[in-house]
Amino acid sequence: MKLQVFERPHEGVRRFSDYQDRALRDRCDVLVVGSGPGGSVAARELAEAGLDVILLEEGPPIGPQDMRQEAGDTLRRVFREGGMRVARGNGFFPTMQAIALGGGSLVNSAICCRIPGWILDGWAEEHHLPELADGALDADFEAVEAFLGVTATDEAIQGERNLLFKRGCEVLGIPAEPTPRNVQGCKGSAECFTGCRNGAKRSTDTSYVPAAIRAGARVYTSLRAEQLVTEGRRVVGVRGRQIEPFTWREAGTFQIEARRVVLAAGCMATPLLLQHAGLGGAHAGQHLKGHPGLAVYGLYPHKVEPWKGATQGYQSLAFLREGIKLEVLWAPPALLAVRFPGFGDEFKGHLLDFERMAPFDVIVSARHSGGSVKPLGRTMQPDIRFDLDPRDVAMLQRGLCLLTDISWAAGAEAVQPGVHGVPPVLTRAMGTAPLQRASLRATDFTVGMNHVFGSARMGGNYRTSVADSWGKVHDAENLYLCDTSVFPASPHVNPMLTCMALARRTARRIAAS
Amino acid sequence: MIEVAMVVGLVATVGLVRGWFLGYPAARPEAPSLSAKEQAVVMAAADAMFPRGGALPLSGSEAGALRYVHESLSTSPTRIRLLLRLLFVFVEHGPWVVNFRARLTRQSPEQRVATLRSWAESPVYFLRVVFTSLRTIVSLAYLSDNRVVDGIGATPNTAPFEGHKKAVLA
Ligand SMILES: Cc1cc2nc3c(=O)[nH]c(=O)nc-3n(C[C@H](O)[C@H](O)[C@H](O)COP(=O)(O)OP(=O)(O)OC[C@H]3O[C@@H](n4cnc5c(N)ncnc54)[C@H](O)[C@@H]3O)c2cc1C
Ligand code: SF4
Question: What are the distances in angstroms from CA A252 to CA A20, A31, A259, A378?
């Protein structure tokens, strides 16, 4: 199938400067709140089905001219709370959410992994969702993958960092593969986190959003939904404020009336909208889950130039049944450097060694861990709680050991495990043993958690869930959820593709009803 | 007895005022969102982590740490701004709170490194979190300077394999 490519993907998107502080009003058949992977898929499907659709987004459109290679600039301009959002519990767990047209798809590494069938079947059984079992999402996955042009990362743009992982896995006999990604014409610039200046990443702002506009949807950016307007069990509209890009200053107001509303504001904002409206029952905002992640940095005798090559071009699903996924990692050097040990010359030495480094990361399904998302007062600021269970800490430790072994097998001369209580630099002579032997707690490392889900989970039982398998909120007649908040448990793999497949399924159901 | 208590109280107040407010150089104009005290803390921390000289000669303050932190503060949401300001207060007075040492900006460069290192390696989680937060801001600032990025060889390049391909073809 030929990919739909949009020369000027943001054409027709309404921006903050269009509103001029006036109170804004509009109405539509279906209002979709949030333009990330979930919302944009829903908007396109609904618009193509002939419905009058409005897609609402709090962040601005970000084109190549707005992208900054400097990490701090990107954090302030594209991430919520300047990239410094944390979940608190038995530790502090940094978690990043984007504020931009396209949501997380703008800044993510474009990894598109299907949730394995056995996990979906598990969701179906544990959460009374038989409609999701036995390959029920296959057609949705196929459609999304075809539209995004998902393909395995090409060897020519892997770069040494990714190839080292491949080699290490080969030596150890660990199955590994090039990462499937939603890119077209990727040049391996490793800049996915700060936005793709090559226009190669098929983030939703350059794929699904323009397709929705072409199908007749109106897209309003810089509008923050703050309150669902309800009449009994029906949602009749959404109210909120205009938000100036990058300064995040609140300006004029808006109100949009709608016959049906789809919430796709992401795992941290959707439950807040539900809780403010008194919808979703006692489970709205509960059962927050995530994929805690950690990395080791291998140091090699030769030049790796880790800033060259697909951002995350190789992965191993070999330990998925244990809840462990292994990947190659890249992010702006300023962010990775935070973890280097030492001061002064020692620290600067590590900076100079960057060109010989290859970071590998592990994410775990964290089955035993969880938390909640609640609003801070009447605001749209989330109070995020998360506790990392010791059993999941053990899984992270196992993942770090595997990555360290892969690094040795790939020829690393030293590895930085980044764990408190373990030597900051492991040599080949020391091997992996100090990491294996350590008795670790949640506070012994800085665990990042960029895959979050579950805060408005779906389920067949009204008393233990927020929405049904079609994303319809149990206690509202015309309110649907289309983001990762509906996942009832971990997908074990990167969540974007599953979110999009579920969103397509929900949107088609809405269109058909 | 009352007189003794008054004298002790007075000495303590003077000590507190002096330790908390006094002795900071005038604020520099390039970072107006930071008070004189916050500026001094940022400079002290940046130069402790990145002293001048060595393989990457720029110091933390030469790499524009002040300007960077000012920009971060002025564009951060209120809650983050508050947390950053609290962080600077703790970094400055933490040495006294933790083990009755002089505030950070009154310490020698060697003492500052020793203080920060003790937090980085502390068994107390809170101190490690303080250190990591400070390290994050200061590292982001240091690596925002193009001379540093060029120095480590990580100059952004949108098509890193194209030159190579051309060379192979030639
Ligand atoms: C750095 C990073 C790398 C990642 N890499 C990958 C990867 O390679 N592969 C993968 O599968 N996953 C990855 N993820 C996770 C993935 O990006 C998310 O799971 C995904 O974006 C979630 O989609 P969503 O639609 O649920 O929410 P989001 O992407 O968060 O989208 C929600 C949207 O709603 C908007 N919004 C929020 N509140 C409001 C409001 N009140 N009013 C209006 N709009 C609002 C937001 O601004 C946002 O645009 C990564 C995440 C990060 C942060
Ligand atoms: S690696 Fe570079 S070119 Fe490829 S998608 Fe990411 S940012 Fe774009």
Answer: 8, 20, 24, 18
